[in-house]
Amino acid sequence: MQIMEAILNIYKPQGMTPLQALDMIRASEPAYQNEKMTYAGRLDPMAEGVLLVLVGGAVHKKDIYNGLDKTYEADVLFGVGTDTHDLLGMPMIVATEDMSDARFKKEADSLLGMHEYALPIYSSKPVQGKPLFQWARENRVHEITVPKRTMHVYEIDMLDRKKITAGALRKEVAQRIERVTGDFRQEAVKDAWSALLEADANASFHVAHIRVRCASGTYIRTLAHEWGKRLGTDAVLSRLVRTRVGGYAIGESMQFDNK
């Protein structure tokens, strides 16, 4: 039986690209193998959660589903910066200090509304015919103007705040990077994190657990980086879960065997 049109709310695991998720669906569900298929709203390899997959005639409605509002839960790690603004980037430790909950919340609130930010240099936005990340890999970002995008944040809720030691962070980074398949500099990045954190395993870093509701096109890793800058340091996403796309919630997401 040929499927003419379908919208699938699937759970994309951390470590997988959206294209790999489409392959996972085809491998798990023979009914979809010969259907046209695309996704609406990219999720980076380090992110997980709701991914809308459009099947058959629904592929022609991609712009509609791309434009839906999004909700995320995120862990933001302060005192570390990377060239990707998440754990899958080359890290450097940035000086930081203990800050009050009030200051954390004040600077988070300053991110609300509409702001224009440069896109992460490790993103798939085409520039002069090739994705921005390719310019970054070739060390040629200085030859182009990095595109900017207006991002609209409706709400940021502070859910929790804690500290993590360098030793625990080293293990977490290694585990999360090991789940990633494809060519994302994994070994070099993992070695760089290990070298950075092994000197003092008892050093600690702030981690904020937040919920963000935003318009389509908002990069949460960009918000993490900007939040860190406004606190006088830097910050990266250590975990990102998309919990809702429009009316599609994570509690209703289909899960597939990705072995």
TrEMBL record:
Q: Which is a GO BP term held by this UniProt record?
A: mRNA pseudouridine synthesis
According to the entry, every stretch annotated as the Pseudouridine synthase II N-terminal domain falls at 32-163
Q: Tell me which domain of life the UniProt entry assigns to the organism this sequence originates from.
A: Bacteria
Q: Which InterPro entries does the record match to this protein?
A: PsdUridine_synth_cat_dom_sf (IPR020103), PsdUridine_synth_N (IPR002501), tRNA_psdUridine_synth_TruB (IPR014780)
What are the UniProt keywords, alphabetically? Isomerase, tRNA processing
Recorded catalytic reaction(s): these are: uridine(55) in tRNA = pseudouridine(55) in tRNA
Which Pfam families does this chain map to? TruB_N
Read off the Gene3D superfamilies from this record: Pseudouridine synthase (3.30.2350.10)
Write down the EC number: 5.4.99.25
Q: Does the record bear Isomerase in its keywords?
A: yes
Under the GO molecular function aspect, what terms does this record hold? RNA binding; tRNA pseudouridine(55) synthase activity
- Which family is this protein grouped under? Belongs to the pseudouridine synthase TruB family. Type 1 subfamily.
Q: What is this protein called?
A: tRNA pseudouridine(55) synthase
Q: Which organism is it from?
A: Candidatus Wolfebacteria bacterium RIFOXYB1_FULL_54_12
